[in-house]
Specification:
The structure is a single chain. The protein is α+β, with helices and mostly antiparallel strands. It contains eight helices and twelve strands. It has a five-stranded antiparallel beta sheet with strand order 4-3-7-6-5, sandwiched between helices. A five-stranded antiparallel beta sheet has the order 9-8-12-11-10, sandwiched between helices. Strands 1-2 form a two-stranded antiparallel sheet. It is globular and about 50 Å long.
């Protein structure tokens, strides 16, 4: 792993002197530019924070690159844009454009192994309303799939949706620090690292309550303590955790 990595939330949140929840919302909902952490020069982070930063940095950089790429689109993109984007992010399983009724308009690539519930995604978008990107899990027969969704609205009316989907196991597997990392939505485990069943138990804690109070913290499950950090894409919390004892 490169010693210079993009620690999006850690740099903006752990080194900042402002309100942590406000900073988390600003940095991780895309209203602030990322900050660079240079591990060679010292970070000012506590040991547990640096461990998490090193474990998640390459993975989270990909998430942020995708978020920014989708967010820049003001209208449903062409097939050529989808092809170029898919080739630049080979860890993506696919890109889809949906119409205002949630029906597929076009996709790249044409052949897809995992079947997504597009109507469920469409209803989530309508419920959230304009201007909210979403990061939504889908359960498939081949395992969990993550959908990053950019809706298009005009004067309050839904015009369509751009959707990118990927398997978190593919996203993290190239990261040399991935074995130290657990990644999950509240109740939905995406990546267990080397933690086995303990990772699933961690994902099933009362995260709605925990993330309502803070954007980072410690939690003990069984006899193991974890340091966790929540990353938002629009309305949706994605939680990273590492064992610290």
């Amino acid at each position: 792993m490169s010693k210079k990595v993009l620690g999006y939330l850690l740099a903006g949140l752990l080194l900042a002197g402002c309100n942590p929840l406000e900073t988390a919302q600003n940095v991780y909902q895309g209203r602030s530019l990322p900050a660079r952490i240079d591990f060679d020069k010292g970070t000012g982070l506590k040991q547990k924070e640096q461990k998490l930063a090193q474990a998640l940095s390459e993975t989270d950089e990909k998430i942020e690159k995708l978020r920014m790429t989708l967010d820049r689109q003001g209208t449903p993109p062409s097939l050529s844009w989808m092809q170029d984007t898919g080739r630049s992010m080979p860890w993506l399983n696919g890109l889809l454009v949906l119409d205002s009724q949630g029906r597929e308009v076009r996709r790249y690539p044409q052949a897809g192994v995992k079947k997504l519930d597009l109507q469920e995604i469409h209803q989530e978008i309508l419920a959230a309303g304009p201007a909210h990107m979403r990061l939504l899990p889908q359960t498939t027969e081949f395992g969990p799939e993550v959908c990053m969704v950019k809706p298009f609205f005009y004067q309050g009316a839904h015009q369509g949706t751009l959707l990118a989907h990927f398997d978190f196991r593919t996203l993290v597997s190239a990261d040399s620090q991935g074995d130290d990392l657990i990644v999950f939505f509240p109740g939905t485990l995406l990546w267990s690292g080397d933690y086995g069943p303990l990772a699933r138990e961690l994902s099933r804690q009362d995260w709605d309550r925990l993330v309502a109070k803070d954007i980072q913290g410690e939690i003990t499950v069984g006899e193991r303590t974890f340091y966790w950090l929540v990353r938002y894409v629009g309305l949706d919390p994605l939680i990273y955790a590492v064992g610290i004892d």
